[in-house]
Amino acid sequence: MRYFFIVVVLMALSFGGGFWWEHGRAASVQQKLNAASEQLAQANSTLAQCRLQDHLLTLVEDTANKNYGEAAALSTKFFNDVNDEIPRVNQPNVKFALQSILAQRDQATGELAKGDPAAHDLFVQMSMSFHQATESAQSTP
């Protein structure tokens, strides 16, 4: 009986030690996962902002070449993407720039529909303000 009790105590101690060791490893892995998830979210945000800037530069190019039909088609997607991105942005400067761009949607759409060269200037201004906002957001820690 005494032998049985010693075996049970040793098994309980070995189980408890193994559990404690695995718990420590799991906590460490969870911290690394949280850090990686945060980095991934930041990378996805940066990627989305780069895509928006790319669309803006394409709009600038299309309007400079007087391809207003292509620009109008791309502007619809661009403004929809801006609208979708605003709630996801955490940087106040970038969020404000996106909201300012979205506020100019009707003006840009109207100028593109008329084939007005002022659309080019409008997209250049949008691109510059968005670029400045993203640059300032990246430079702040």
Features:
89% helix, rod-shaped, Four Helix Bundle (Hemerythrin (Met), subunit A), 141 residues, mainly alpha
- Work out the number of β strands: 0
- Which class in CATH terms? Mainly Alpha
Morphology:
rod-shaped
Do you know the CATH architecture? Up-down Bundle
Strand fraction equals: under 5%
User: What is the overall number of helices?
Assistant: 5
Q: What is the rounded distance between the termini?
A: 65 Å
- Proportion in helices: over 70%
Could you give a short account of the major beta sheet?
none
The poorly predicted ranges are none
Mean pLDDT: 89
Overall SS class: mainly alpha
Provide the CATH superfamily.
IL-4 antagonist (De novo design) like domain
Q: CATH topology, anyone?
A: Four Helix Bundle (Hemerythrin (Met), subunit A)
Overall tally of structural domains:
1
